[in-house]
C-alpha cells in the first residue's frame, strides 16, 4: 500500500520474465515515495519454459501462466491492461493504445519480441506466429480443436530449427497421438545451429524415431496458401504452419529515438539501461545487451530480473548502477514432449526421463515464486 507521498514514477511496460521479478522485489521491499505502474497487454503472462509442456498436455493453462493481478497487488502497483504504442522521451510520457499518456521518471521495457513473418511474402497471412508467446496458448488450442475435428490427414509444419521449434514440434506430435497428423520441421540452417553436435545428433535421432520430417537448408522465401516455397526450389505443402523463427522488435520502438541494434531491439549496456537515455531500461527479448550478446530466450530474461530490479532501485535513488555478468555456461534442457528430455552443456549431452523430471522441478520452483506470494509486509 502506497503511504508516502509520490515523488517518483516507475513504469514497467510488459509483464515478461524480468518484470515479474521486479514486482516481487518491490513487494518484498517497497521503495518509499515511488509509485509503481505496470502496463500489460494480458493479465496472464506465460512462462516460456513450460509452454511446450502445456502444448504436450502436461500442464494446465493456470500452471504455466502467472496471474499479474495478485502480483501487482502484492507489489502495491497499479495494473493497467493496455499496450504501449509510443514514447515521448522529452516529456517522459508513455503513449498507450487505449489510455491517456503516462508520465514516468524511470521506464523499463520487457515486452518480448513480435512476430517477424512479414519479411517473407505471405507468411503473415498463412502462418501461425509462435511469438509473442502470450498469445500462443490460445492459438494452439484453436489449432488443436481443428486437428481433432478433421476427418482427413493433416500436414503441420514448424518453420524454425532452433530449440523452440524442436520442442514445439515434438510437443505437438505427442499431444496429437492417435490423430491423422503428420509433422515436419523446416529450417534455413542446420538443426539447432547454436548447440553442440552431440545434442544435435540426439535430437535428430529422436525426430527420426518419431517420424517427423526434417528439412534443413530450406530457406522459406514465400508462403502461399498451403505451401512453403524455399530458395532452392523445394515446395513443402501444409494444412497448418507455425512460424518459430527468430522474432523481431515491436515496430513502434523505431519511432522513439532510442538507440537500437540492427534488428530494432533496444540497445542497453551491462546495467540494462539504454545507451542513449538514462531514464529507460530494457530486459528480456526486447533488449540487446551489447556487452553480452545472447539469443532471444526466456532463460536469459529470467536471469536479468534480479539485477534489473536492483538497478531500477539505484536509478530511482540516485545511486550508481552496477553491471551484471550473465552466466557463461549453463545447462540446457530440451523437452521431447513425452516426459523425456535432452540435457546439454558445452560439448556433452545426456538424455532420459530424469532430465525431464529435473526440468519440471526447475520450472515449477520458478513458478512458485510468483504464484505462492508471502504475506504483504504492510498488511493486506
UniProtKB/TrEMBL annotation:
Gene3D superfamilies in alphabetical order: 3.50.50.100
Q: Where, if anywhere, are coiled coils annotated?
A: none
Pfam hit, one? Pyr_redox_2
Domain FAD/NAD(P)-binding intervals? 9-293
User: Does the keyword Flavoprotein belong to this entry?
Assistant: yes
Q: Which domain of life is it from?
A: Bacteria
Classification via SUPFAM superfamilies: FAD/NAD(P)-binding domain
Which InterPro entries does the record cross-reference, listed alphabetically?
Answer: FAD/NAD-bd_sf, FAD/NAD-binding_dom, NADH-Q_oxidoreductase, Pyridine_nucleo_diS_OxRdtase_N
Alphabetically ordered keywords of this record: FAD, Flavoprotein, Oxidoreductase
Classification via PANTHER family: APOPTOSIS-INDUCING FACTOR 1, SLR1591 PROTEIN
Q: What is this protein called?
A: FAD-dependent oxidoreductase
Source organism of this protein record: Benzoatithermus flavus
Amino acid at each position: 500500500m502506497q503511504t508516502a507521498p509520490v515523488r517518483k514514477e516507475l513504469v514497467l511496460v510488459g509483464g515478461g520474465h524480468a518484470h515479474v521479478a521486479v514486482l516481487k522485489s518491490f513487494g518484498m521491499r517497497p521503495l518509499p515515495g515511488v509509485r509503481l505502474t505496470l502496463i500489460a497487454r494480458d493479465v496472464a503472462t506465460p512462462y516460456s519454459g513450460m509452454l511446450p509442456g502445456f502444448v504436450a498436455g502436461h500442464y494446465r493453462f493456470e500452471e504455466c501462466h502467472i496471474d499479474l493481478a495478485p502480483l501487482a497487488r502484492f507489489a502495491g502497483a497499479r495494473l493497467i491492461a493496455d499496450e504501449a504504442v509510443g514514447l515521448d522521451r522529452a516529456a517522459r510520457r508513455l503513449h498507450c493504445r487505449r489510455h491517456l499518456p503516462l508520465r514516468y521518471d524511470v521506464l523499463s521495457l520487457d515486452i518480448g519480441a513480435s512476430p517477424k513473418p512479414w519479411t517473407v511474402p505471405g507468411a503473415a497471412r498463412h502462418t501461425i506466429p509462435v511469438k509473442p508467446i502470450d498469445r500462443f496458448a490460445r492459438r494452439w488450442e484453436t489449432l488443436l480443436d481443428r486437428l481433432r475435428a478433421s476427418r482427413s490427414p493433416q500436414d503441420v509444419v514448424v518453420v524454425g530449427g532452433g530449440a523452440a521449434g524442436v520442442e514445439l514440434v515434438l510437443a505437438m506430435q505427442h499431444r496429437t497421438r492417435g490423430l491423422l497428423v503428420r509433422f515436419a520441421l523446416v529450417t534455413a540452417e542446420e538443426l539447432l545451429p547454436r548447440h553442440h553436435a552431440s545434442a544435435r545428433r540426439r535430437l535428430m535421432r529422436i525426430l527420426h524415431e518419431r517420424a517427423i520430417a526434417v528439412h534443413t537448408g530450406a530457406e522459406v522465401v514465400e508462403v502461399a496458401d498451403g505451401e512453403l516455397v524455399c530458395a532452392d526450389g523445394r515446395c513443402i505443402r501444409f494444412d497448418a504452419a507455425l512460424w518459430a523463427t527468430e522474432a523481431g522488435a515491436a515496430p513502434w520502438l523505431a519511432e522513439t529515438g532510442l538507440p537500437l541494434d540492427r534488428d530494432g531491439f533496444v540497445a542497453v549496456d551491462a546495467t540494462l539501461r539504454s545507451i542513449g537515455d538514462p531514464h529507460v531500461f530494457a530486459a528480456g527479448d526486447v533488449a540487446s545487451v551489447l556487452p553480452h550478446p545472447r539469443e532471444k530466450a526466456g532463460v536469459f530474461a529470467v536471469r536479468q530480473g534480479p539485477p534489473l530490479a536492483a538497478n531500477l532501485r539505484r536509478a530511482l535513488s540516485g545511486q550508481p548502477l552496477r553491471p551484471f555478468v550473465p552466466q557463461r555456461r549453463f545447462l540446457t534442457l530440451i523437452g521431447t514432449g513425452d516426459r523425456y528430455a535432452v540435457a546439454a552443456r558445452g560439448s556433452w549431452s545426456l538424455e532420459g526421463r530424469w532430465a525431464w523430471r529435473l526440468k519440471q522441478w526447475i520450472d515449477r520452483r520458478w513458478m512458485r515464486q510468483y504464484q505462492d506470494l508471502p504475506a504483504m509486509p504492510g498488511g493486506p
